[in-house]
Specification:
heterodimer, A: alpha/beta, TIM Barrel, 9-stranded mixed β-sheet, 26 strands, B: mainly beta, 13-stranded mixed β-sheet
Chain lengths: ~550, ~270
């Protein structure tokens, strides 16, 4: 089967192509060179005047794992209010802020997204996460395994184990939980919460293990680097949402010995304490630090106004914020002593000073960070807003007039404290393509996604160029997933099942002796039962696993 | 203008969701618009005119004729006008209803008046289980308004009820007023076991002493003048409760395993 996409205007930042009219050929799910003259073309799509990009990649979205199910259970009203009917191609579903798995996959595809990465896969709960992601159609998926508050790591660090042992444990975790990266949430803080600590700053010690968050970040970022894992350590910082946490964030950037870090939903970590209400934007300082430190990348975690639900492993932050929840119900729980979880429904209001300023801070960060290869478009779905609001967010970034109109409608006190109105930058389509495609693929370590070069998987999205970018990005004309046409005019026309992306760095298997003993002594399950196998993900042929290379494995660096 | 009448013309295989057919939502719509409304039916949707014959034009007064037990969500979220049902109805009658009047000349299934916050529902037949109770996941059942049941009601009546008045002239099943938060329930007939189980606050008015579980406490006989006022306030309602003129009761408090501020009053 040979498909030709004729005459589209292509944006492919991975190859420096910025709006060039060209043809793309697809054969057997891959992008191929121009075929020989006279070869039969089975399908020819005339894309004259259309915008062609690789399928978008959401590098941080909570689409699987225990907390999403808790959010679903907690919010029946969310499901009742948004029923999705069964159609010719799609099964029924529901949910606006925490949609069902099927609906999640359809909606992502209908927005031109072809991959999403679940950022908080608890190793002990990885099976649940993969089952949910396996039930999410069309898009590719992957997960970041969560370490940093688990007793085994802290125990190893308290015993001052050699870095090699930590590296082996990190690598083992990636294998066992079928993940593509390592995430750390409130480094050590989830554990400290269990010892009755309610705050934990970067250099504060865990009351029991005497380990600081800085130690955890250093150890893990170094392990990720030395194992050659493409995705840098994915860091949800300490002190999320606390006014003045900008200092913690800047210290985190400075304090990890230069190992690469990805700071996630950085908007929630960019707050100062200026002004009458002791809450202010520190976006400029954060952006300056990101611009200066080339080993740092970040995704924004933009908030958008309306009802949503915050679901996070950071039970310390969630416990702190539960009183602000709306509707008034919340969950904080431990999960198998491996980490924690907090779910708090939240309604962001544009006339609320704090919410309005959060909104402005997120946009300031987007616009003040110079390098679109190191800043990513997320709302930390569903924590800042559901992923379905991405087209609206893209319009805010690409249309200054629209942005300023929105700004003038929010809480006047927040407007006064924001520099947003003075920022003229408008993102170009090329920059949007970097943030949501090429950059995201590079960051996660997907060599064959996020670009349109020969050999890449044919994940392609075609939009009609529309001055209103919200309209344009919410309803693509065509979406191809692995060469198959899955969406036409913003509606699913074929349901396929994506790949699960993983990495498998080499490691010394003798670490299993220690891990097995730990499970034997302290856990409810045997170590072998924690491991998720390829067969389980393959699920009778519906899914499969793609292993990405860990290039440049390094020996111990010091 | 005659009432807008939907006459059910087919036997249904699946449950049919009628939440779209309320006076508020139909106001200003033409006959053709109404006929074309899609109603969720299992995994499909059906047009209104595939299921109903339509007569009349007054959208503020709706009649469902030949109604059957598979018609769910009648009067869901309605705020004004009247709906009259001739025949049985399915579940979720008057779900989250905010105002208006709803009368059913037949029996209704589970979760009638769940989440209701205002208006009047009069059920001339029997009500199913979970009358005025919270649906799973919700934390409050009925939140206001008045419900009159001429016949009997099932189990878990008033589970997590928060406010409003629920007057039942027949008998009620087990777990009546369980986990009740506030409001008033009256039952003229008998109640089943575990009455007031987990009851937090609120008032349950009975005419004979029910079987009591261990955490309901007898507080003695009292003359409560406010009861006269309450029965007087029922004066306008088409219910036997309007004719009661008593204020001497045996009072039981409970469920003391759950705050214990609820009261069960047995008229003497």
């Amino acid at each position: 089967m040979l498909i030709k996409l004729t005459g589209g205007t292509v944006y492919d930042p991975a190859h420096g192509i910025d709006g060039k009219v060209m043809d793309i050929y697809i054969r057997d799910g891959r992008i191929v060179d121009r075929p020989r003259d006279g070869e039969r073309i089975d399908q020819d799509h005339n894309l004259a005047g259309k915008v062609v990009m690789a399928g978008a990649i959401d590098m941080h979205t909570h689409i699987g794992g225990g907390k999403v199910n808790i959010a679903r259970t907690l919010l029946p009203e969310d499901h009742r209010a948004d029923p999705v009917m069964h159609t010719e191609h799609c099964r029924a579903g529901c949910g606006h802020v925490a949609p069902s798995t099927l609906t999640t996959g359809y909606r992502y595809a209908e927005m031109g997204y072809t991959a999403g990465f679940e950022p908080a896969v608890l190793p002990i709960n990885a099976r649940q996460a993969h089952l949910e992601m396996g039930d999410t159609p069309i898009i590719d998926k992957g997960g970041y395994a969560m370490l940093g508050s688990d007793d085994l790591l802290l125990r190893m660090m308290a015993a001052n184990k050699d870095q090699n042992a930590i590296n082996d444990y990190v690598a083992w975790t990636l294998h066992a939980s079928q993940a593509i990266g390592i995430k750390v949430v409130n480094a050590g803080g989830i554990n400290a919460f269990k010892f009755n600590q309610r705050m934990l700053d970067l250099d504060e010690k865990n009351a029991y293990y005497q380990v600081t968050p800085r130690d955890v970040l250093q150890r893990l970022s170094r392990a990720v680097h030395e194992l050659g894992i493409p995705h840098p350590l994915h860091v949800h910082g300490n002190n999320l949402g606390v006014p003045g946490n900008v200092e913690t964030t800047l210290n985190t950037i400075a304090g990890v010995d230069g190992y690469p870090l990805h700071l996630t939903h950085i908007q929630f970590h960019s707050y100062g304490t200026e002004g009458d209400r002791k809450f202010s934007s520190a976006a400029a300082r954060i952006a300056e630090a990101i611009n200066k430190n080339k080993h740092i990348s970040a995704d924004v975690g933009q908030i958008l106004f309306g009802q949503t639900v915050t679901a996070s492993g950071d039970n310390m932050a969630q416990f702190r914020n539960h009183a602000a929840g709306s509707p008034n119900k919340w969950v904080c729980m431990d999960i198998e002593c491996d980490a924690g979880c907090g779910v708090v429904p939240f309604k962001y209001k544009d006339q609320n000073f704090v919410n309005a300023l959060q909104w402005a801070i997120g946009l300031e960060i987007f616009l003040l960070v110079d390098d679109p290869w190191r800043i990513f478009l997320t709302t930390d779905h569903p924590n800042g807003a559901p992923f379905t609001s991405y087209p609206h967010l893209i319009r805010l970034l690409t249309d200054k007039t629209f942005r300023n109109d929105m700004l003038s409608s929010i809480s006047p006190d927040a407007q006064k404290l924001s520099t947003l109105a003075s920022i003229d930058r408008e993102y170009s389509l090329y920059e949007i393509a970097i943030m949501t495609r090429a950059g995201a693929a590079k960051l996660v370590g997907l060599h064959d996604r996020g670009h349109l070069g020969v050999g890449a998987a044919a994940d392609i999205t075609v939009y009609s160029d529309h001055a209103d970018r919200e309209k344009m990005f919410s309803k693509p004309d065509y979406v191809f997933k692995d060469g198959e046409l899955v969406v036409r005019n913003g509606s699913v026309v074929k349901v396929t099942w994506g790949t699960t992306h993983v990495v498998r760095p080499e490691f010394d298997r003798s670490i299993e002796k220690e891990i097995a003993k730990y499970f034997e002594t302290y856990h409810t399950v045997n170590m072998e039962h924690v491991k998720v196998t390829d067969q389980q993900i393959a699920d009778d042929g519906r899914g499969h696993v793609q292993v990405h290379e860990c290039k440049g494995r390094r020996e111990k660096t010091a | 203008m005659s009432a807008l009448t939907f006459t059910l013309k087919t036997a249904l295989q699946q449950r049919l969701d009628l939440s779209a057919l309320t006076p508020d939502q139909l106001a200003g719509k033409s006959r053709a618009d109404i006929a074309a409304i899609q109603l969720p039916y299992g995994r499909k949707q059906l047009r209104v005119d595939e299921v109903f014959d339509l007569h009349g034009e007054d959208t503020a007064n709706i009649v469902f004729a030949n109604s059957a037990a598979k018609l769910d969500y009648i009067g869901s979220k309605m705020k004004s006008g009247t709906i009259t049902v001739n025949g049985d109805t399915g579940a979720y009658l008057g779900f989250q209803m905010g105002g208006g009047e709803l009368a059913v000349h037949g029996n209704v299934d589970a979760y009638a008046a769940s989440g209701m916050s205002g208006g009047l529902i009069h059920i001339f037949g029997n009500a199913g289980d979970f009358l005025a109770a919270a649906i799973p996941g919700d934390r409050k059942g009925m939140k206001g308004g008045t419900v009159i049941v001429t016949g009997n009601a099932g189990d878990r009546v008033g589970d997590q009820m928060r406010r409003g008045t629920l007057l039942i002239e027949g008998n009620v099943g087990s777990y009546c007023a369980s986990r009740m938060l506030a409001g008033t329930i009256g039952v003229l007939g008998t109640v089943g076991e575990y009455v007031g189980y987990g009851m937090r606050r609120g008032t349950l008015l009975l005419t004979s002493k029910p079987a009591m579980h261990a955490t309901l406490q007898d507080c003695g006989a009292h003359t409560l003048p406010y009861l006269s006022l309450m029965f007087k306030s029922f004066g306008e309602l088409p219910s036997k409760f309007a004719k009661i003129d008593k204020n001497r009761v045996q009072r039981y408090a409970g469920d003391v395993a759950n705050d214990g501020k609820g009261e069960i009053l047995v008229l003497q």
